[in-house]
Amino acid sequence: MVTEPEAGFSVEAGNSVQLADAMTQLISLSAEELENLGNAGQKASKSYMWPVISKDVLAVYRRVLEGSN
Prior knowledge:
This protein is mostly helical. The protein has one domain. The chain is 65% helix and 0% strand. The longest helix has 18 residues, at 50-67.
């Protein structure tokens, strides 16, 4: 799932026509556009990396524990 418009292409699951269209668009991009797409995708994925997820979960646990005292 792509949530950032500049970070990739979204296609409906099981829709081979949309997938083929997205792949055709992808191979027609310039090197600069591919680099921009890759950078945007990497930036968009940071919130899904385990160090970030674990930090967020620990923050929730701390808030819960502080509220129970």
